[in-house]
Amino acid sequence: MRRYLHMIRPFDVIIVVVLMALSFLPVVLFARAEAAQQAQSPAHSTRVLTAVVTHDGEEVYRIKLTGHQGTTRFRYNDGGDYNEIVTTGAQIQITEADCSDQVCVRRGKISKPGETIVCLPHKLLIEIHSSKGEQTGGMVTE
Predict the structure, then answer these.
(1) In this structure, which of 52, 89, 128, 132 has its CB flanked by the most CB atoms within 10 Å?
(2) Hey, is 48 helix, strand or coil?
(3) Does 130 lie in the same domain as 112?
(4) Do residues 86 and 97 touch, judged by C-beta distance below 8 A?
(5) pLDDT along the chain (142 residues), means of 10
(6) Cα separation of 81 and 59, whole Å?
(7) DSSP letter at 130?
């Protein structure tokens, strides 16, 4: 270990520390921008979130998440395939499916505009829409 210490120069340490500090800069900037956006948008609380379930591009189920209380279950069957969709409060998830990979079940709960759950083997998509603003790549702009 000692023979490698002579290869490190003081300026190398400074560069490493500065680069490590700069790596946290995007986190700080995005957090500030989000806080500023929420502060400017009092209508943020009046938007209505809706979960839309589609199969192969066709809408098969829709539920309003804003103001939803309790637990609502929906079982989607397509031939021998099924997905158990559970809405608890303002969150929705797939709790059970008979697909082989179980990616949709492991995805867990979603509750924000633009979030999705996809079950590729069953061609099922759950997407959260907002009644206010546009969805652009998972972000909502108002």
Answers:
(1) 128
(2) coil
(3) yes
(4) no
(5) 74 93 92 80 72 94 93 92 94 94 94 93 94 50 36
(6) 17
(7) E
